[in-house]
Design goal:
46% strand; 282 residues; globular; single chain
């Protein structure tokens, strides 16, 4: 019998598959994300060797699925998803994270409040948009999450995104960030300011549920401002108002506004618009 642990997936469906010491299980990992994929009938392909090496159990005389290895860390450098809702950053360089997002860390790690500078602080005060950040540096592993929301990692290469500040979980310290007004937006639409991140590095964003990514180049695209997570900065934006459909479109029961997108790029939308909006009263 082999000790339990993560091993290369013998089916080739995923990168790793969990072996419980007796048989292959349905727990798999690909790209740092855990999921399930049942083993095909008949087990692994012929000639596939059984796992020969695994980490010994960490629980000593305690057993159970929580400590048998299937919930152990997913290895890798830099930002790696441990599951859909938890990000681990193995420190290779300083990074920025939302204040209060750290749930655990290992090693010699320092956390410091990161002010945005006078200009960004003023914009946050006036617009309500902006990031409350901490700078993380040192050596070790940092685990971060935000209210059990889904976490997604984007890699930027001389590019940029415009994101709702509430959806930004962490990013490379080398990226430039600022609070910018959405082009084409009007103050009458309310809150049309976003946080932009530009340069080369990684960004971790959160979504309240599984998102959809829309290709704005396929057709004119409209989205409720409360449901928008982020978009690529090359898109052209504007505001569309729906007077006659105000009671049908968006979260409110009065005049409704949507952000419009056109050009080549993507828009990330989450299946949530935040808290309930009280009904309009006259």
């Amino acid at each position: 019998m082999t000790a339990a642990g993560w091993q290369p997936d013998p089916t080739g469906v995923a990168e790793l598959r969990y072996h419980d010491g007796n048989t292959w299980t349905e727990h798999v990992v690909s790209g740092g994300v855990q999921s399930v994929s049942p083993m095909p009938a008949g087990g692994p392909p012929p000639g596939q060797p059984a796992p020969q090496q695994a980490q010994p159990p960490m629980g000593g005389g305690i057993s159970g699925e929580l400590i048998d290895g299937r919930y152990s860390e997913v290895q890798g450098h830099g930002p790696v998803l441990q599951n859909k809702k938890l990000l681990r950053v193995r420190m290779t360089e300083p990074f920025m994270a939302k204040q209060g997002s750290m749930v655990a860390y290992q090693g010699n790690v320092q956390f410091a409040y990161q002010g945005g500078g006078a200009g960004r602080f003023l914009k946050k005060a006036v617009t309500g948009e902006g990031l409350s950040l901490m700078r993380v540096e040192g050596q070790g592993d940092v685990f971060i999450a935000d209210a059990a929301k889904d976490v997604h990692i984007l890699q930027l290469t001389n590019s940029g995104i415009s994101a709702n500040g509430n959806n930004v979980l962490a990013f490379s310290a080398g990226l430039d960030w600022n609070v910018e007004r959405v082009k084409g937006g009007s103050m009458l639409a309310g809150g049309l300011f976003n946080t932009t991140l530009r340069g080369t590095g990684w960004v971790a964003i959160t979504t309240d549920g599984e998102p959809v990514v829309l290709d704005a180049g396929e057709a004119p695209t409209y989205a409720d401002g409360q449901a928008i997570v982020a978009w690529s900065v090359d898109l052209q934006t504007g505001v569309n108002s729906s007077f006659t459909a105000g009671s049908l479109i968006g979260r409110g029961s009065g005049e409704a506004f949507q952000v419009t997108f056109s050009g080549r790029g993507f828009v990330i939308v989450q299946p949530s618009e935040g808290g309930e909006v009280p009904p309009h009263t006259h």
